[in-house]
Amino acid sequence: MKLQHNTILITGGTGGFGFEFASKLIALGNRVIITGRNTEKLQEVKQKLPKVVAIQSDVSKSADIRSLYDQVAQEFPGLNIIINNAGEMRKISLHHKHELTDITREIEINLMGPIRMVQQFLPLLRKQENAAILNVTSGIALMTFPVSPVYSASKSGLRSYTQALRVQLKHTNIKVIELVAPGSATSLNDKFLGEDGFNAGMLMAPGKIVDAAIKGMKNDKTEIYPGVARIIRIMSRIAPKFMIAQAGKTGASTMYSN
Ligand SMILES: NC(=O)c1ccc[n+]([C@@H]2O[C@H](COP(=O)([O-])OP(=O)(O)OC[C@H]3O[C@@H](n4cnc5c(N)ncnc54)[C@H](OP(=O)(O)O)[C@@H]3O)[C@@H](O)[C@H]2O)c1
């Protein structure tokens, strides 16, 4: 698809991949709207990227998605691309006590968020000549990361939903794209630095991942596997138990017991 003269909404545009998407897509000549929960971070991005439209919105809250839709549909009726990027990842020891309302947080943000965004914005996307939905999953959607069990569930769930969505939208004007991102040096991963079994040297720069995503979108790829995501894809098919055992080394000494 052409990546110029589009109106693009990116959830979670204040850091990591979302910020890289915003700056690169603006540079290509697109109108870009970003969201996030933290107003100060939104203001900081606005200073760095004066052309960006920054709207506070929490993707885990249905009411926020409804009001985001009302504002965007009113002010940007030509919106034709949504990038479901906002995400959170925690280390969770299942041996510890967790509030039932809190334990599912990644599901609410990373999985329910995109599902609700798609449902809310679909009628607007259907009105456009060319439209796309890009969902950011993860190599972890292919291979669980035991130290982050709820995150792992959220990303494999999002991959499954994305595949179903692509089939259901096959005869529409809307392309459905999955970015299977490998580990990257963003604040999402700060909590793992220094953790035994975690190889920070494997983290890919977020800008490079977003470059690969933009190239994939331009070339009409439906699934994009930057860097080691390609290897994870092959290895998780050939040797799934080995891959889970490898991933399970992160946090093993501190997280897997009382
Ligand atoms: N980094 C990696 O290794 C990696 C690998 C594969 C996939 N991914 C995925 O890539 C996406 C972006 O991750 P990242 O590494 O760029 O993370 P990041 O640097 O921590 O940025 C996350 C962004 O999401 C926003 N966000 C978080 N919760 C939100 C919510 N409830 N509503 C709206 N915005 C929210 C954050 O802003 P606020 O905090 O202000 O809301 C921030 O803008 C995520 O879906 C992540 O799972 C990351």
TrEMBL record:
Alphabetic keyword roster: Oxidoreductase
GO MF term list: oxidoreductase activity
The keyword Oxidoreductase belongs to this UniProt entry's keyword annotation: yes
Extent of the signal sequence: none
UniProt xrefs under InterPro entries: NAD(P)-bd_dom_sf, Sc_DH/Rdtase_CS, SDR_fam
Family label: Belongs to the short-chain dehydrogenases/reductases (SDR) family.
Protein name from the UniProt record: Putative oxidoreductase
Organism this protein belongs to: Chitinophaga japonensis (Flexibacter japonensis)
Lineage of the species this protein comes from: Bacteria, Pseudomonadati, Bacteroidota, Chitinophagia, Chitinophagales
